[in-house]
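tokens incoming
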């Protein structure tokens, strides 16, 4: 039986394919072993949640949230701070919670106010293996909703009188600054009108 050129090419192609598959398998096993021998990158999960609460309730809500996090078995309070200015009052709380209980804890926190923003992210650390993928780092911001008169400042009686006197002085200055020009303009207009009247030819009587 004679071998044709096509059969020879098919055998050569099959042999090359088998060699290639063998080398690929060996290379994959080598890479898998080398990667396993190196430290893996740690995965971190973070969540940020912002709540809006009624005015003048920050202290009460802040204390309730702190007590809830301290008593919950899967959460750990890390840090907290409060910022208060003339218009807003905010509380910032950072805590950690087990990943399998994170949804439960966040749902409980949402009941304290109106959710204005929520963000969850997962990333891999570039150094070491210190990250624990089973722990979620959460940052909670509680902000009081501004009232209707939040932008209105309270004025004392001396301040009110000072504003009135300043306004009256500005009005008097304006009147006396404009009045000479009004008088001058009136005189010019009257003089031009009088000149035109005298220079006009007398009307002929019919």
């Amino acid at each position: 039986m004679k071998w044709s050129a096509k059969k020879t090419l098919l055998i050569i192609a099959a042999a090359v394919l088998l060699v290639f598959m063998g080398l690929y398998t060996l290379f994959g096993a080598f890479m898998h072993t080398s990667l396993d021998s190196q430290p893996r990158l740690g995965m971190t999960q973070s969540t940020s949640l912002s709540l809006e609460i009624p005015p003048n309730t920050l202290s009460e809500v802040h204390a309730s949230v702190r007590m809830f996090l301290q008593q919950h078995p899967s959460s750990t309070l890390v840090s907290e701070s409060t910022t208060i200015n003339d218009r807003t009052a905010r509380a910032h709380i950072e805590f950690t919670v087990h990943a399998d209980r994170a949804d439960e804890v966040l749902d409980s926190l949402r009941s304290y106010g109106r959710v204005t923003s929520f963000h969850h992210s997962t990333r891999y650390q570039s150094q070491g293996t210190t990250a624990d993928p089973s722990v979620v780092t959460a940052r909670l911001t509680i902000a009081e909703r501004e009232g209707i008169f939040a932008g209105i400042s309270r004025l004392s009686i001396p301040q009110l009188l000072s504003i009135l006197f300043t306004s009256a002085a500005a009005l008097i200055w304006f009147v006396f600054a404009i009045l000479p020009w009004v008088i001058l303009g009136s005189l010019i207009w009257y003089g031009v009108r009088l000149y035109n009247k005298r220079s006009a030819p007398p009307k002929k009587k019919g």
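note: The first strand starts at residue 43 and ends at 53.
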